[in-house]
Amino acid sequence: MQWWCSASGKPWTWEPQYYPGVWLMVALLAVTFHTLSRRSRALGASRAAYWGGWTAVGLVWQVLDWPLGPLAAGYLASAHAVQFVALALVAPPLLLLATRQALAAAMPTRGPGRQLLHLVTQPIIAGVLFNLVAIGTHVPAVVDGLMPSQVGAFVIDTLWLVGGLVLWWPIIVAVPARAWFSVPVRMLYLFLSTLVHTGIAMVMLVRAFPMYGIYELAPPWPVWSPLEDQHLAGGVMELAGAAVIFGIITVMFFRWSGGVAGDVPPSAPRRD
């Protein structure tokens, strides 16, 4: 039994493995979500948003626990790419949509807490922070150095989830509210803020040699080679990531062009 999924260097088997650290993290996420989502339901959150949030909790569990967790930690770069898309691009918006009313109501109106929140959720700052996380956690030296360690693998997984929450906060929670951050600007922000991960995917697709020693030197996977796995990882990041981003941009565009409100929760202040 390990605390968290990490690269072991042992041949892969389909024998279940147990990771209490993953269970603890998911349990804390579930309790926090339950508390915030109940408050949001009382403030007008929809049932669809509520169940979408629980879907996100389940998704986080599935991509961190066996079998995808250990596969991503030390066997398949493609599984690692699935984790990135799920933790950074899919789960965070679902979690925020289900809890944004409670989050908006709980935000401080003054003091250091508000100043820090104002800084971190500035769209430019949020986009830069997300891209720094995306770049830093895909540098070969970082991946090869951290994934063999349970703490290092935990850090990468947590950074993806937290980075995703920071990225999506200005669009979904929109507190503090910014009058200039209109829906068209939000669509542009989302597009520009996710270009870097597309660039990383392209590098994976065109490289003629494996980028990561942790996956190149892993015990052989019987279905495809390390280089084929890397190309598959690039395809996952490129296609799945683009599907999520452009799907959401499309929904935002049609809601905006149709005059449908709902980007900012009613309890959010209108000005900084």
How would you explain this protein's 3D organization?
This protein is mainly α and 272 residues long. The chain has one domain (20-257). Helices cover 70% and strands 0% of the residues. The protein is built from 12 helices and no strands. It has helices at residues 20-42, 47-64, 68-74, 77-106, 112-120, 123-136, 140-146, 150-172, 183-193, 195-206, 213-216, 226-257. Helix 1 (20-42) packs antiparallel against helix 2 (47-64) and helix 1 packs parallel to helix 4. The protein starts with 19 loop residues before the first helix and ends in a 15-residue tail after the last helix.
Query: Low-confidence runs (pLDDT<50, min 5 residues)?
Result: 261-272
Which percent bin holds the helix content?
55-70%
Can you write the helix and strand succession as a string?
HHHHHHHHHHHH
Ends apart, CA distance between termini: 49 Å
Structural class, judged by helices and strands? mainly alpha
Mass-distribution shape: globular
Number of domains: 1
Summed up:
This protein has about 270 residues and is mainly α.
Index terms:
272 residues, mainly alpha, 12 helices, 0% strand, disordered C terminus
SSE layout and pairings?
Blueprint lengths: L19 H23 L4 H18 L3 H7 L2 H30 L5 H9 L2 H14 L3 H7 L3 H23 L10 H11 L1 H12 L6 H4 L9 H32 L15
Helix pairs in contact: 1-2, 1-4, 2-4, 3-4, 4-8, 4-12, 6-8, 6-9, 8-9, 9-12, 10-12
